[in-house]
Amino acid sequence: MQTTGTLTLAAAPIGRAEDASVRLRTALGAADIIAAEDTRRLRRLTSDLGVSPTARIVSYYDANERARAAELLEQLRDGHDVLVITDAGLPGVSDPGYRLVTAAIEAEVPVTVLPGPSAVTTALVISGLPSDRFCFEGFLPRKAGERSARLAALAAEPRTMIFFEAPHRLTAALEAMAAALGRDRPAAVCRELTKTYEEVRRGPLGELAEWSAGGVRGEITVVVGGAPDRAGEADLGELAGEVERRVTDGALRKQAIAEVAREHHVPKRELYDAVIARKTMR
Fold it and tell me: Which of 54, 97, 199, 204 is the most buried (most CB within 10 A)?
């Protein structure tokens, strides 16, 4: 017979309240304790959903996560059901939740998840980039040196990568990505997902960095294509020769490089370097 409470991690809508599930409405009304990242936003959500929680509501955010997790674990051991909810998305994904989950598992307290919206998977599927294999990297370090080091370690990562970023740091992040991963690396900047002003900007990292310099607002998720598999790629020397043939036939060199690079899925910069190297060897 179960004598402890159950810990429930509940996904909150990332934009529209109507994306909340019936299960979330029921759980918010039935929990003994609700641990919310922002209690004001929780009350706004419950109001939008027409739910009147009877639970004791406590704050549970980055600064108090360690201490609050210990308190919540004691409540669970005493038989109280605890529901954890963040501002948006799933607890534990760049939001508080991990410490409490591990503590509950160690204490043999039942843990369950109330699934729902996630900016990670929403951005992935809308980006147009490969979704069969991906990794979530969360927020990049704020300091330039640490950010560059993190990205350098990801330069050869073959999976599609997903990042969260603050609007005021977006340009610096995209510029660092372009420097570490290549300006031609395909990416997508997803802004205000599921909200009224949702926007998805797709293109090479270099172009996205230039675009974002004009200012971007809202919640940001960045999706970046993995490192290309060079196995089976055409030889750059041969492709440089193809560029020369097109130029001889009347095409502009810049246009020829762009077309050949696109047709053979190689970075324009590398093909340009190969064209220049071919000319200097003569």
Answer: 97
CB 46 within 8 A of CB 152: no
Which tokens is 104 given? 């509950």
Q: How many CA atoms lie within 13 A of 251 on its CB side?
A: 15
DSSP state of 89: B
- Cβ pair 83, 10 in contact under 8 A: yes
The secondary structure element, H or E, covering residue 245 is helix 236-248
Question: What's the CA angle centered on 213, arms 211 and 218, to 5 degrees?
Answer: 85
d(CA 204, CA 123): 16
Q: At residue 35, what are phi and psi to the nearest 5 degrees?
A: -100, 110
Amino acid at 8: T
Q: What is the pLDDT of residues 169-218, one digit of tens each?
A: 999 999 999 999 999 999 999 999 999 999 999 999 999 999 999 999 99
Contacts of 279 (CB under 8 A, 6+ apart): none
Question: What is the rounded distance in angstroms from the CA atom of residue 45 to the CA atom of residue 39?
Answer: 10
Residue 244, judged by CB atoms within 10 A of its CB (0-12, 13-18, 19+), counts as middle
Residue 58, number of CB atoms within 10 A of its CB: 16
Q: How far apart are CA 172 and CA 49, in angstroms?
A: 38
Is the separation of the CB atoms in 78 and 88 below 8 Å?
Answer: no
